[in-house]
Each structure stands twice: as structure tokens, then as C-alpha cells.
Amino acid sequence: MGAIKIKDVGKIYPNGTRALEDVNIEINDGEFVVLVGPSGCGKTTLLRMVAGLEDITEGEISIGEKVVNEVAPKDRDIAMVFQNYALYPHMSVYDNMAFSLKLRKLPKEEIDKKVKDAAKTLEISELLDRKPKALSGGQRQRVAMGRAIVRNPEAFLMDEPLSNLDAKLRVQMRAELGQLHTQLETTTLYVTHDQVEAMTMGDRVAVIRKGELQQINTPREIYLYPKNIFVAGFIGSPAMNFVYADVKISGKKAELSFGDELITCDGESAKKLEKMDGEQIVLGIRPEAFEDSNYAKDSEYSGSISIKVTLLEQLGSDSYLHFYKDIKPVQTEAIEEILADEGEDISLLGDQTKFIARINPNSTAKEGEEIKLSVDQSKLHFFDPDTGNAL
User: Under a CB-based contact definition with an 8 Å cutoff, are residues 147 and 115 in contact?
Assistant: First the structure.
């Protein structure tokens, strides 16, 4: 059994810097769990602690029912796949894949079978005689995977293994890794900075911020029901739009006003806001909650807002509209951290809030044009402006 249990785990470096605090994650046997978060959030540190490459300051880590806090990396029965492949340049692909098996002094025939079986699975059988310098990035990554597979470990630990590949190859390798996991059914803990990678690959996704676990759930649940502003803003591409909104309860409906715009909610949305009458909240609107009013025929759309298109991005299957509203932007620590991770500075917006809408690609909207966007109230999210938690 290759289940991994991370219980009350913390990490404090000798200089007093706390990298992780009270992290609790249980990874079931055969499950694929992805750790995702901004640079420096502690996800790679946690992976290295599971591998035994970092000491555990607090808590307990077990692999396959065995506590491994004091167990050497080589005795943990795990296989790591690194960002930089870590192949031996002077060895052939075959020898790279066979190296760990030779160290374990397995019979030559068994080594040969394991290497050739893994090569066949990864479709690199014709590359076994080549040296790493003669391989493309994708081929090198397959070799690194092959070296891990031949060991038949209890668990795979992967540290951003696709980050050195170009965009097209990353998409291809994502799919291949998913198929490989389905085939091998080996417990996998995977670290990435790319939330699209996390959402498409993980059985469950664990979002980490500043060394603390924010939320762990299926990709769909995290996307639909984020626990706080950070998770809501970090998961989703393009990111969720945030704006301060004033709440007014009128019977069984809730009116949300921001700037000179008004959105009316009823049903479940209104119920979430019934205790917020007269209060200000942070309203989260995913880009797909907007639609060009000319195409918004669905009953879910309640009301519309007037906008002036600043930028139009046409991607074939989607169109993205960028626009601004003369409203003070939401300035929470979580949002500033998300923007900084994307290379943006919230202070440059001044007293304007930037929005992105994903609309029907058949829309005839043009840059500089004033149009109306309808809003799907079922896709709105509400947050406490003080705590950042979902209401």
C-alpha cells in the first residue's frame, strides 16, 4: 500500500524562517494529488520532506503505514522525477534507466525486462542506445519517468517535471502522464506552479499559500466552491474578478451595487447574503459569468452592466473582453500576492478596477465600443472583506 499521510507537519529553518505550518494531507493508495501555489509557498519543501531530502521539524509523515521521519531517502521506497531530469550525460538511455536496479544487484535478465517494459510503455524503445544530449526535452522527460517506473516504487514524487518543456509539449505530456497514472495506479504527489496543470491532472488538488494548506478537494469542487479569496483568485484562468459591493436585502432578493452598477440575486445566492444587509462584501465574478447581452438568453442571467471595451482578445473558441470600472480595486493581501505572482502591481491601477469577461466568440463587440454585459448570478462568489473567507 502506497498511501501517504502528512500529519501536523511543519518546517522551521535554522535561521527561524517558517516554511510550513500544520499541514495535514492524506493521499490514498493509487491517488494522484497535486500541490499548487505561488513561488515560495512551501510546496517543493513539503515534497522534499516526504522524500527525506529535508528534515521534518514538526509532525509526522508516513508512507505505506510506516512512519518515515527518521528513515533515509533510499529506504523510503519512493521515486522522484525532477524538473531538470537529472540524467547521467555519459550513460545511454538504457543505462540511465537501469542504474538504480544495478545498485540493488538485481539479476541482469530482470533488469533488462524492467527497462524494456518501461521503455515500451513510454514509447522510447528506439532511444535506448542514445545519450541524453541526443534527445529532445520531451524524450529526456520520458527517460526520467522511465527511470522512476522501473523501480516499481510505492509512490512517485514529481517536482514540476514539465516546466522546462514548451507550451505544446507540456499539453501533450500532461495527457501522457495522466494515461500513465491510470495504467500504473501508483500513488503520486505532484508539485506544480501551473494551476491549469493542477486542475487537469489531479484527482485532488491541494492549494498552499505561505506554508499553510488553504484547501484540498477535487479540481471541480475547488473551482466551484473556493474557501477564500486566495483560492478563488489563484484557481481559474483568466483569474476571477473581484470588486467591493454593497448589499441590500429586499424581500427574498439581494441587490449588489458597485459604482453605478446593480446586480440582483435570488435563490441560493440571496440566501448566502441574507445576514449581510447594509454591509460591504467582496464580490467575485468569474470571466465566464459575463456574457454579451445579445447572446444572454438563459434565465440565469439577471440584469446587465454597461462597459466600454478596452481590449478584445479573440482566441477562436473564446473571446476575452477587458474593461475597467471607476471603482477602488479590492486590496487584500491575498489578491496582491496573486497579482505579484503574475507580475502585476495593484498600485498601478489607481482608483480603477480591471475586469476580464469571457463571452460568445460570435460577439461583434469591438475595442472602444460601449456594450452591455449580462451576469449569471449562479456563478457569483461572495467573500468577507475582513477575513477573506467565503460567505
Answer: no
Half-sphere exposure of residue 94, counting CA atoms within 13 Å on the CB side? 11
Average predicted confidence (pLDDT) for the chain? 91
Which residues neighbour 178 within 8 Å (Cβ) at sequence distance 6 or greater? 32, 200, 201
Nearest to 229 by CA among 82, 384, 23: 384
Contacts of 93 (CB under 8 A, 6+ apart): 119, 124, 127, 128, 129, 130, 131, 132, 135, 143, 146
pLDDT in tens, 326-335: 988 888 888 8
CB count within 10 Å of CB 212 equals 17
CB count in 10 Å sphere of residue 142: 25
DSSP β-bridge partners for residue 377: none
Angle of CA points 15, 21, 24, to nearest 5°: 145
Whole-number Cα distances in Å, 382 to 249, 334, 385 = 15, 15, 9
Note the pLDDT of residue 300. 65
Please answer whether residues 263 and 255 qualify as being in contact, where contact means their C-beta atoms are separated by less than 8 angstroms: yes
Per-residue pLDDT tens over the stretch 171-185: 888 888 888 899 889
Question: What is the sign, positive or negative, of the torsion defined by CA atoms of 294, 297, 298, 301?
Answer: positive
All 3 cell numbers of residue 154? 510505492
**At a CB cut-off of 8 Å and minimum separation 6, what does 359 contact?**
290, 291, 292, 295, 318, 319, 320, 321, 365, 373
Over residues 103-118, mean pLDDT: 92
Reply yes or no on whether the pLDDT at 345 is more than 80.
no
Kindly give, in sequence order, each residue whose CB lies less than 8 Å from that of residue 313, ignoring residues fewer than 6 positions away. Answer: 319, 320, 322
Q: How far apart are the first and last CA of the chain?
A: 39
Share of the chain above pLDDT 90, in %: 65
Task: For residue 209, give every residue at least 6 positions away whose Cβ sits within 8 Å of its Cβ, in sequence order, or none.
Answer: 37, 38, 41, 230, 234, 334, 337
Instruction: Place 17 in a pLDDT band, splitting at 50, 70 and 90.
Output: very high
Nearest alpha-carbon partner for 366 in 308, 304, 290: 308
Q: Could you tell me the sign of the dihedral formed by the alpha carbons of 367, 372, 378, 380, in that order? A: positive
Angle at 87 between CA 101 and CA 114, to 5 degrees: 30
